[in-house]
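One record is given unchanged without comment:
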Amino acid sequence: MKTTTLNYLEEILTDYPKLTSYIHHCEQQMIITSSSGQGMVNTIATDRYLRRLKENQQAVHDCLEQTDPETRQIIHTLYFSPGLRLTLRDVSIQLNMSLATISRKRKRFMNNLGKQLGLTL
């Protein structure tokens, strides 16, 4: 997997816990924009952004549902811990798993997420 693709997926995962509030904020912006009579360009751009947020949220949710509990725990520890940015080695120590297992399970999850989002891997 390309580094840029991996970085993009990591960004999506890092944002996942906050996506519900992002989506709500976007929906509120669309309501305000449409009621104030501002141009359609803002509404179309916001609609595309909102649709992408919802697609990302659904893809992460589906991948988390379909994966095994160990991988789910790895992803939660790596990306959903507020304020912490752990390395794979840190996670392997914290979860008492080998670094190779952590790396393999994360890679498989990222490939599945990339496919779910229709990205070229």
User: Anything to note?
Assistant: The chain has six helices and no strands. The longest helix spans residues 40-66. Residues 1 and 121 are 5 Å apart (CA to CA).
